[in-house]
Amino acid sequence: METPTKPMTAREKIRKLVEVKEQAQREAQERYKNDPEYRAVFERLEKKNEERLANQRL
Question: Residues with Cβ < 8 Å from 38, sequence gap 6 or more?
Answer without folding.
Answer: 31, 32
